[in-house]
Write a structure and sequence with these properties.
Keywords: Monooxygenase, Oxidoreductase. Pfam families: FAD_binding_3. This is FAD-binding domain-containing protein. InterPro entries: FAD-bd, FAD/NAD-bd_sf, MOase. By secondary structure, the chain is α/β, with parallel strands linked by helices. It has 2 domains: about 325 residues, FAD/NAD(P)-binding domain (3-Layer(bba) Sandwich), CATH 3.50.50; about 90 residues, 2-Layer Sandwich (D-Amino Acid Oxidase, Chain A, domain 2). It is about 35% helix and about 25% strand. It contains 12 helices and 19 strands. The strands form 4 sheets. Strands 1, 2, 7, 8, 9, 10, 16 and 17 form an 8-stranded mixed beta sheet that branches. The chain has a 7-stranded mixed beta sheet with strand order 5-4-12-13-14-11-15, sandwiched between helices. A hairpin with a 5-residue loop joins strand 8 and strand 9. The relative contact order is 0.18.
Length: about 425
């Protein structure tokens, strides 16, 4: 079976759904291919900083989430070995977004909020990309042929890879494979049916080679994480919980252990923390003609700055804006040559932002889990927590811009050849 589409997006994660929403604002309906049978909420929850909320504002969905999630007000980091406590300095948001602040939300709630903005036939589940081919279509225009594992062939004028860390599209572009950071992460949701009693504060704990923390989602749920050196851990939820309690967090405060013991095991996951080396983004082919990548497919990063979700939302707004403006300038038509230029402009805008986030995230984790050497402790406790907050604040206050006000009903998106 063969189908023809204007835009195909591989992956119905944050980047994929957000990009489809951004394009819909310009009357461009994308087909989103998702390999799973439903929206995947791996990771359970995530923390969104001001830059992410600005992107959600541009997409027109932030109000759905701010209404049910309260901002975090402050936090602290406790050194388990010494007992020293460092206050977390949350960045002051720009005027106009201060009411949103920093919030921890259910990942599934974000995905559902984005999916609700799309037509019901926009997402095709159980659709795994098996192969990609670029075919000349005359006049210098290229058509992307996407083959699925079920034998379906889809032809498209644009292909956007939002298919995660091990992206098929990124591999086709020739991007370097992500590498292991030397650390692994455990994430889960703790449920307290009678209420947990914690305020809207972040609690973090550091020890040699380890870092953990928890933060409220609501009155009864806490999102928690643990990052440790190495990559060997079981995949069974019950065993992950036991290994965290007995091996990795045995010296941590009882408050953290209590949170882990209240974990909803269905939300518990372990994974090695991967990243694409910055030089792979600097010199890599992030696009070729009408094919590009966004989100983790472009810039997988460690979670130490909490920017995986936020950067994916930024990608979506910027990519949607560049393609959308091209569509408007061509009277609602997709012109292959102009769309290719729009994608090239998107890559130019996002490349160095991605490099800084990948580098900053890795260095943040390296410093915080650098070990017991005196100079690492000094760097972490006396320099990083006190003076690095300004640079981090600039990273998380980034504004990716707006989407031009359009009425999608006024745009009839079709195609023409050059």
């Amino acid at each position: 079976m063969e189908k023809m589409e204007d835009v195909v997006i591989a992956g119905a994660g944050i980047a994929g759904l957000a990009t489809a929403v951004a394009l819909k604002r310009f009357g461009v309906q994308a087909l989103v291919l998702e390999r799973s049978q439903e929206l995947r909420a791996t990771g359970a929850a995530l923390t969104l900083f001001p830059n992410a909320w600005l992107a959600l504002d541009a997409l027109g969905v932030s109000h759905k989430l701010t209404a049910i999630n309260s901002p975090l007000v402050k936090g602290c980091v406790t050194n388990v070995s010494t007992g020293d406590v460092q206050q977390l300095l949350f960045p002051v948001t720009n005027k106009g977004s201060s009411e949103q602040g920093i919030r921890t939300i259910h990942r599934k709630a974000l995905l559902e909020a984005l999916a609700e903005e799309l037509p019901t036939d926009s997402i095709r589940f159980s659709s795994k990309v098996a192969a990609i081919e670029n075919q000349e279509n005359g006049g210098g225009a290229a058509i992307v042929v996407v083959s699925l594992e079920d034998g379906t062939t889809i032809k498209s004028k644009v292909l956007i890879g939002c298919d995660g860390v091990h992206s098929v599209v990124a591999r086709w572009l020739g991007l370097s494979e992500p590498v292991h950071s030397g650390r692994s992460g455990v994430r889960g949701l703790a449920v307290f049916p009678e209420g947990h009693g914690y305020k809207q504060e972040v609690q973090q704990f550091v020890d040699e080679g380890k870092r953990a923390g928890f933060m409220p989602l609501n009155d009864k749920e806490l999102y928690w994480f643990l990052v440790c050196n190495g990559e060997n851990m079981t995949v069974e939820p019950e065993q992950i919980q036991r290994e965290v309690l007995d091996k990795h967090a045995e010296k941590f405060p009882s408050a953290f252990l209590d949170v882990v013991q209240h974990t909803d095991l269905s939300t518990l996951t372990w994974a090695p923390l991967m990243l694409r080396p910055p030089w792979g983004i600097v010199f890599g082919n992030l696009n070729k003609g009408n094919i590009t990548v966004a989100g983790d497919a472009m810039h997988p990063m460690t979670p130490d700055l909490g920017q995986g979700g936020g950067s994916s939302l930024e990608d979506a707004v910027v990519l949607g804006r560049h393609i959308g403006i091209s569509v408007i300038e061509n009277g609602g038509l997709i012109v292959p040559r102009d769309v290719a230029k729009a994608i090239d402009d998107y890559v130019k805008e996002r490349r160095w932002r991605a490099i800084w986030l990948v580098t900053g995230s890795f260095l943040s984790g390296w410093i915080q889990q650098g070990g017991a050497r005196w100079w690492m402790k000094f760097l972490r406790d006396r320099v990083y927590y006190k003076y690095a907050s300004g640079g981090i604040a600039r990273l998380v206050r980034y504004d990716c811009g707006k989407l031009p006000a359009t009425s999608s009903g006024e745009i009839n998106c079709s195609s023409k050849e050059d």
